[in-house]
Amino acid sequence: MKAFSAEGRETGAEQLWICEHPGVFTLGLAGRPEHVFAPGKIPVVPTNRGGQVTYHGPGQVVAYPLIDLKARGIFVKEYVHKLEEATIRTLSHFGVTGHRVAGAPGIYVRLDDPFSHAMLPQRPQQRAPGSPVLQPDFTGLGKIAALGIKVASHRAYHGLALNVAMDLEPFSRINPCGYAGLRTVDLSTIGVSATWEEAARELSAQLSRLLAM
């Protein structure tokens, strides 16, 4: 990704990679080794994306848009919003309501009713000037998609991971995204039967549409 993005500065080339990784823990630039407390035989790989630690493995759709933000006139926060929106729309395709949580990138679902359209009290909201920044509140929620990007010379790479039908046990060996006790779920956990191919196809379509790729 790094090499392609560097070459693309000259050619304007962009791509969307959709893949599935073998089991691996990845540490972002803010990653702290103590958040990986029982890796076992699963490799731990430092990366240059943002964020903390997460797990990638079979049954998870990983999407890497390699795009030129400057050429598209997209700011970084807007780009992150588009990645999250593509994930929310993908979940909606399968009848699931995805949510944003203030101060915590990624997409979450209600554990008691993943299909409820009711807004979360933890959703991002405008703060009054001078008011304190609230810590993320994951009460009653499970994380179903993680985000982590890198931007260099206006080119974005890395991306997002959507949990479809995984062995979720490795997430219990880490503090996902640096949060102790944060529960991780996938579509199969919440009762949605979808293949990796179906989820990958829908996520690809949503990303392509929102990013006009």
Describe the protein in words.
By secondary structure, this protein is an alpha+beta fold. 23% of the residues lie in helices and 26% in strands. It is globular. The chain starts with a helix and ends with a helix.
Q: What spatial order of strands do you see in the largest sheet?
A: 1-5-9-8-7-6
Q: Secondary-structure element order, as H and E?
A: HEEEEEHHEEEEH
Arithmetic mean pLDDT: 93
Strand content: 25-35%
Structural class, judged by helices and strands? alpha+beta
Form type: globular
Q: How far apart, in Å, are the first and last alpha carbons? A: 17 Å
Radius of gyration: 17 Å
Any idea of the CATH class?
Alpha Beta
Q: How many strands in all?
A: 9
Biggest sheet layout: 6 strands, antiparallel
The name of the CATH superfamily reads Bira Bifunctional Protein, Domain 2
Number of domains: 1
CATH architecture: 2-Layer Sandwich
Q: Which percent bin holds the helix content?
A: 10-25%
Uncertain stretches of 5 or more adjacent residues: none
CATH topology group: BirA Bifunctional Protein, domain 2
Q: Output the number of helix runs.
A: 4
